[in-house]
């Protein structure tokens, strides 16, 4: 959540991308909590079915060894896979996180995460690296993005930043170019905005160098508020990041500046149109959650974050119920280190919540995948192929005879994301037939790292 909007000392979210709460969970606590929730309580039938369905999706591409003699399929699955951790909100160096996408994946794996959504601010540039690393560790990446927007009610004083999370399939956004243009505009706005903040600081007799900020942000990364704050700490103008925000950079603060953000409803609509699941991030950081949720629900919002490391927030959970929204959540991990940040994978999402998420997401993702392959079948260009392989981590081996035509590609992609039945629908079979005549041009495509 850090960076663009939600950092506001008056709200209950702090500069560390976490939420101030009486019980701040730390790593140890989180482990304890998980153990407690794990095996001792007996599952209800609903929970057991949800658990089974979620497990099946998570391990779609992996053969389950089923012991038919003793327990039967269901029991064996549940015993072998005792927990599935989803981390649905994380940041890498591609925006304002501290870890590279591959390091982030490594850390996720170390923390027992099985499904990781990389949701950098206004960019999906870290996804290919994350997907490739995820193949090494046998975990699934949900290609995601956290979009910076500004809610703009009639009363301009009630304007406030809103972050929308988008979750896509292994094929990525259905109309990637359109989404990318949308995100690029926000990123360009962030450059201007960071420049404006530096200018304001200079006027406040804190002469910060623009080069300093861009150096901290790193090559090709749109600088944000956190990068400005880090430069301020390094220059010795403030003692720590918290002070930089509390004194200068908070929403409406003396060095605060707005960027070029779209309206949240525009972001939600575009996510829906490009085959993604749209989720409102950290609603507890909002001044006007009800007005915003109302408007976004009309625009097609699917869910909202209500779970944090310290548990479910009843008030937002009730709001989600009232508006028929999915109840999700993630750690919003930035990799800063230290105790003030919730650990990656520390948000415990119940199997029923994950099952509900997948029930909504999978038909959306199915349509997006179909759409993407339809486009490729119509126009089997290298650029369309590159777009598919980029998000799915389905790299093509040079000289690999097992993947010589478009049908092989679609089979490989689908096995990671769709069940056999989903992959065998008439629609997809028709596309596959078309693609069986399409030779894959292997020139210029990287040699993959193959698992197994
Ligand atoms: Zn975030
Ligand atoms: Zn955020």
From TrEMBL:
Residues 8-20 have a biased composition (Polar residues). It comes from the Eukaryota. Residues 86-151 form the Polymerase/histidinol phosphatase N-terminal domain. InterPro entries: PHP_dom, PHP_domain, Pol/His_phosphatase_N, Pol/histidinol_Pase-like. SUPFAM superfamilies: PHP domain-like (SSF89550). GO terms for molecular function: 5'-3' DNA exonuclease activity; 5'-3' RNA exonuclease activity. Residues 25-41 have a biased composition (Basic residues). Residues 1-41 are annotated as: Disordered. CDD domains: PHP_HisPPase_AMP. This is Polymerase/histidinol phosphatase N-terminal domain-containing protein. The lineage of its organism: Eukaryota, Viridiplantae, Streptophyta, Embryophyta, Tracheophyta.
